[in-house]
Amino acid sequence: MNVSIYLASSSPRRSELLNQIGVLFDRVKAAIEEKPETGESAQDYVLRLALQKAQAGFKNSDKERPVLGADTIIVIDQKILEKPRDKKHAREMLQLLSGRVHQVFTAVALVQGVYTKSTLVKTEVSFKKLSEQDISDYWRSGEPVGKAAGYAIQGIAGKFINNISGSYSGVVGLPLFETAELIREFMEEVNH
Ligand SMILES: Cc1cn([C@H]2C[C@H](O)[C@@H](COP(=O)(O)OP(=O)(O)OP(=O)(O)O)O2)c(=O)[nH]c1=O
């Protein structure tokens, strides 16, 4: 893809995924508060965060290129799971996911001045039943830190996952097909 954008993300996975589809980018900083509002649905929440990251990134940029922001959350039993605060929190989340199917939502937003466009991708992920040993060994690997719901499908947790339906790259943090489409449509609109 022959476009150049800014990426409002500190996630190394998102950089790698954008590289994978040939989008040229520089990173910009975007610090926002991540907290659901009362009554806000999971879908609205994840879309709002992606958009706020892109908007914050745009403010910090030279405003010459579109800025991409993204956010990933996990939903199970109407609960939103984000990055673990500590070992106890990670253990609680993994116990909740054990032996069940959950939803992963990744939202991607593009912003350039008055132009904004976003997309939401849902993936269903099924976990095998996890033993206490699985969970404590997994925490000790260090992998849960910094990952939504405390797991990484692209890492050791791949061995816990017996089925997925949707976008693998979306679970890792940036859905490749939908992101490429979003960038293409955004460029068309801006250059019209
Ligand atoms: C579920 C899952 C999440 N993740 C990662 C993707 C995201 O980086 C992270 C979810 O946190 P996010 O808040 O979406 O993103 P981030 O804080 O890491 O990065 P930034 O806001 O700067 O863009 O979890 C995986 O790497 N593998 C997985 O299987």
Automatic annotation (TrEMBL):
EC number of this enzyme: 3.6.1.9
CDD domains assigned: Maf (cd00555)
Active site: D71 (proton acceptor)
Site (Important for substrate specificity): R13, T72, Q154
Catalytic activity annotation: dTTP + H2O = dTMP + diphosphate + H(+); UTP + H2O = UMP + diphosphate + H(+)
UniProt keywords, alphabetically: Cytoplasm, Hydrolase, Nucleotide metabolism
Cofactor(s) needed for function: a divalent metal cation
Compartments where located: Cytoplasm
One GO term describing the cellular component: cytoplasm
BP terms from Gene Ontology: nucleotide metabolic process
Molecular function terms from GO: dTTP diphosphatase activity; UTP diphosphatase activity
InterPro entries associated with the record: ITPase-like_fam (IPR029001), Maf-like (IPR003697)
Pfam families in the cross-refs: Maf
Purpose: Nucleoside triphosphate pyrophosphatase that hydrolyzes dTTP and UTP. May have a dual role in cell division arrest and in preventing the incorporation of modified nucleotides into cellular nucleic acids.
Similarity annotation: Belongs to the Maf family. YhdE subfamily.
NCBIfam families: maf
Protein name: dTTP/UTP pyrophosphatase
